[in-house]
Write a structure and sequence with these properties.
about 60 residues; mainly alpha; Erythroid Transcription Factor GATA-1, Chain A; elongated; Znf_NHR/GATA; DNA gyrase inhibitor YacG
Length: about 60
């Protein structure tokens, strides 16, 4: 059985543990989750559409 190579924890740099992979501990996993929930991490993308523009578009395409 081959072992999966471990990488360092992306939060603190310690070796990752099997139980909390890719983190070294649940503490570092929670720090990462807090960063996602707090808006520190963002995925690249376009600006969200204006809700009023969406409604207008739906109204235009449903008038047929």
């Amino acid at each position: 059985m081959s072992r999966i190579p471990t990488k360092d924890c992306p939060i603190c740099g310690k070796p990752a543990s099997e139980a909390a992979r890719p983190f070294c501990s649940t503490r570092c996993a929670n720090v990462d989750l807090n960063r996602w929930l707090g808006g520190d991490y963002v995925l690249p993308g376009t600006e969200p559409a204006d809700p009023e523009e969406i409604v207008e578009h739906i109204e235009q395409i449903t008038k047929h």
